[in-house]
Design brief:
The chain is of the alpha+beta class. The protein folds into two domains: 2-88, Endonuclease III, domain 1 (Orthogonal Bundle), CATH 1.10.340; 91-161, no CATH class. Helices cover 44% and strands 16% of the residues. Strands 1-2-5-4-3 form a five-stranded mixed sheet, covered by helices on one side. A hairpin with an 8-residue loop joins β3 (136-140) and β4 (149-153). α1 packs across α2 (36-44). The longest helix has 19 residues, at 70-88. The chain is elongated and about 50 Å long.
């Protein structure tokens, strides 16, 4: 899990944070690697977006000597949480999320927790058009949740909601 996280966190830092603007420079993909261990630890420990954003802001101002750009740090923290939660999401639900993003849907937010402690929720902006995979339920959730419908995976306890 940690090695998978290194790759997705590295990519997120280069594409969503990148305070020194080297994201597209060939050979510079390891520029922020020194920050990976702490960020991965924060993700694994369940730190929230505010804590991660604050950490990124401190890196900008203390380690890099740059003015902190709060909006960039908040967006990067959100992206880091999304990629982390997607690493925990079961493959079949990830396929659906990828297909929805390809058709123009977007992720509103993600979370992890629930009764088992590692249930992942990916909330999408628009309804899912994909068919429900075998072994999963598509169900109306408007009465019990802040969203309308969901596709729920009984094995993992995770779901996609909209």
């Amino acid at each position: 899990m940690r090695s998978q996280l290194e790759g997705v966190v590295r990519d997120a830092l280069l594409h969503c944070w990148d305070p020194i603007g080297i994201g597209k420079v060939p050979g510079a993909s390891d520029e922020y690697d020194v920050y990976l261990p702490k960020l991965i630890e924060m993700l694994l420990d369940g730190d929230d977006q505010k804590a991660i954003s604050t950490h990124l802001s401190k890196i900008e101002s203390s380690s890099l000597g740059l003015p902190s750009h709060l909006a960039r740090c908040e967006q990067a923290a959100r992206s880091l949480l999304i990629v982390y939660h997607r690493c925990l999401l079961c493959p079949a639900l990830n396929v659906i999320v990828d297909a929805e993003i390809a058709r123009g849907n977007s992720i509103l937010d993600t979370s992890c927790g629930g009764p088992r402690g590692n249930d992942v929720v990916v909330r999408l902006e628009n309804p899912v058009t994909a068919t429900t995979p075998i072994g999963m339920d598509r169900r109306n959730a408007a009465e019990t949740s802040e969203w309308h419908e969901e596709i729920y995976d009984h094995r993992s306890g995770s779901f996609i909601a909209w």
